[in-house]
Amino acid sequence: MARRRIIAGNWKMNKTPSEAVALCAELKDLVKNDAVDVVYCVPAIDIVPVVEAVKGTNVKVGAENFYIEDKGAFTGEISAPMLKDAGVEYIIIGHSERRDIFGENDILINQKVKKAFAAGLSPILCCGESLALRKADTYKAWIERQITWDLDGVTADQVKKLIIAYEPIWAIGTGETATADQAEEVCGLIRELIAKLYDQATADEVRIQYGGSMNAGNAAELLSKPNIDGGLIGGASLKPDFGQIVNA
Ligand code: PEP
User: Fold this and answer.
1) In the annotation, is 77 catalytic?
2) Euclidean distance between CA atoms 130 and 147, whole angstroms
3) pLDDT the model gives residue 29
4) Is the N or C terminus of the chain more exposed, i.e. has fewer CB atoms within 10 Å?
5) Quick check: 102 and 77 in contact, CB under 8 A?
6) How confident is the model at residue 1 (pLDDT cuts 50, 70, 90)?
7) Is 226 touching ligand 1 by the criterion CB < 6 Å?
8) Phi, psi at residue 123, to the nearest 5°?
9) What are the residues whose beta carbons fall under 8 Å from the beta carbon of 2, sequence distance 6 or more?
10) Does residue 95 carry a catalytic annotation?
């Protein structure tokens, strides 16, 4: 089945609100493509101005993090209903930086996936192995375990709307990209796992992105692979190159 391509930028902790608005203006004409879902996942403080800045364009807004409770005594946190009310449609969950720097584990990530769906947000669920696991050739089992845990109790209908981002940690922000064949191998494996955990129809619908130093030069080859339905892009999402990736 034909899955719609989804190209999402992960701005990480970059861009003040005024810089964010300026970047939206800079990218506006470059990211025009009605055949592709285009998403800017932005820092929490940039959400309101970016939602305003992309009004009337094809760009949707995503967030980079939230907490699993709706409201209450959780100083410093932001909830899924708050994001939804602000105009957010996508949410990155399980990014390796949140797993490694902020200690998020698969139990919390699983709760976040379920909460995001309950709040009407589309999760972009990240998975991926370290260089050590890649070298030890245990990366396939690692990724299967991550996804199996992260999707515990998530329904087939929800998984059909899920985006899974395969992001080998050794390729994030390093300039080192997985080859298109390496990326396709794991994205294909993820789809097979979804067929095993759910059914073939669900596996055919779930969208799988590759992320890890995707750029204007390598995007077309990565995106030509049958199981790669899009990209999650860090560094290159802050530059005009992002437009070339959207239109690759
Ligand atoms: C990311 O952090 O999701 C990512 C893919 O970063 P980069 O493109 O900079 O490797």
Assistant:
1) no
2) 15
3) 97
4) N
5) no
6) low
7) no
8) -75, 140
9) none
10) yes
